[in-house]
Amino acid sequence: MTAESKTRIVIIGAGYAGLIATVRLAGKTRKQNVSITLVNMADVFVERLRLHEMAANPTIPQKRIADILKGTGVTFVQGAVTGVDLPNHAICVQTGSESLRLEYDKLIYALGSTIDRDSVAGVRENAYVLTPSGTNSVEALSKKLPEVNARGGTLLICGGGATGIESAAEFAEAFPKLHVQLVTQNGLGDFIKKPIANYMRESLTRFGVTIIEHTQIKEVQAGKAITADSTTIPFDLCLWTGGFSTLPLAREAGLTVNERGQILIDPFMRSISHPEVYAVGDASHPVEEPGAPVRMSAFYAAVSGANVADCLALEARGQTPKPFSFAYYGQAIALGEHNAVAFSIYPDDKPRGPMLTGKAGYNLRAFFLGFFGILPNLERRMPGALFWTGKGRYAAAKRRAERDPLKPVQIHMIDTPETH
Q1: What is the mean pLDDT of residues 69-84?
Q2: Is the separation of the CB atoms in 39 and 91 below 8 Å?
Q3: Which helix H or strand E contains 170, and what residues bound it?
């Protein structure tokens, strides 16, 4: 077979899903006639789980994508994807110096999600978000925090999910003069069991965090947030962690998406409208539940990225891929430098069993955080290193549905609480 007849696989996005898919696929197709190209806007691997830590400590080192890809045979293109030409199987990339057009036989869409800055007026202009670069990014916030801390200013964090809670604890501990306020639309920890929520509340209170519950922010202005009942909450800095959104690229290209812009995929990770396009991570949503409810999370990103690599590797060998199926393990929420609460959510993302707190919870979280950090390099050296449970749950659900046609396999479009 000639080089020209190679199967061209293009992967867009190098977060947890895209980068794991890339190195795992490269390792599993070394002897197959494929070419792999990875496109990403940044030249570093952004560990989204650590962005709030990077804001408090900007000296945390980052991993260069080129180093991770060394020896894999993958072509790396640094640039922004500006369009997907579905009829002609090509993407448009702006590298800064030139515009490229890359053709593909198979496309893996792994552009993930970003903080939703448009649903509430003024967020884009007046609030910082946990993104790696840009005007109101982690980098910009890290430069402002020491100055505001020195004069005892106020940091208002909007959003009471796991990201907001972790950020509040991190900044309150790292900047002891900073007055940290956490405002949440619901009760603190309403998405979790009460004992876990109570522990999070106690930990935040120890750091002096002011918790403002059942309060909806309707607008963010310069130096103040306006609530739904027109109350004004003044601040020196505002960090917005309230919800995630996807890029409009998939919808604009003509892929079938849900109301949030996530690409709807079949059990083999393929777009239901364009089967040559595969989608993983936050940018995807299965039309059939793959063994457990799907939410935007680093864990789902990692296992979906690994699974799409397995599917394409099997296809490259002329074999039939297996449907995607998984189960969750657990979740850990950081509450400062040496404190966290960890608990089991096996298998269906529902908290159960005892919780680990304090140093024990922190150590467990640190282990998994470190594992996710080294996983791309680990997959490069040992393709297939990431293993997950629940691979038979989807098939079991299908068998149950066949026995009882009145209870079909669920199609999940309802959001579950997002954590990263």
Answers
A1: 98
A2: yes
A3: helix 162-174
Q: Do the beta carbons of residue 411 and residue 342 sit within 8 Å?
A: no
Instruction: Select from 259, 260, 288 the least CA-distant residue to 272.
Output: 288
Q: Beta strand pairing status for 63-64 and 44-45?
A: antiparallel
Q: How much is the average pLDDT of 347-354? A: 93
pTM of the model: 0.94
- pLDDT band per the 50, 70, 90 thresholds, residue 411: very low
Kindly report the number of other CB atoms within 10 A of residue 247's CB atom: 16
| CATH for the stretch 3-114+245-328 | 3.50.50.60
What is the secondary structure of 341-403 as a DSSP string?
A: EEEE-TTTT--EEEEE-HHHHHHHHHHHHHHHHHHHHHHHHSTT----S-TTHHHHHHHHHHH
**Distances 291 to 17, 122, 170, 253 between C-alpha atoms, Å:** 18, 39, 34, 29
Task: Write the pLDDT tens digit of every residue in 213-244.
Answer: 999 999 999 999 999 999 999 999 999 998 89
pLDDT tens digits, one per residue of 108-154 = 999 999 999 999 999 999 999 999 888 899 999 999 999 999 999 99
Q: Give residue limits of the domains in the chain.
A: 3-114+245-328, 117-242
Q: What is the CA radius of gyration of the chain?
A: 22
Tokens at 85, concatenated: 């030409």
Say if 3-114+245-328 and 117-242 have the same CATH topology.
yes
Candidates 3.30.160.70, 3.40.50.720, 3.30.70.100, 3.50.50.60; CATH matching 117-242: 3.50.50.60
Read off the tokens for 96. 């800064």
Averaged over 68-92, what is the pLDDT?
A: 98
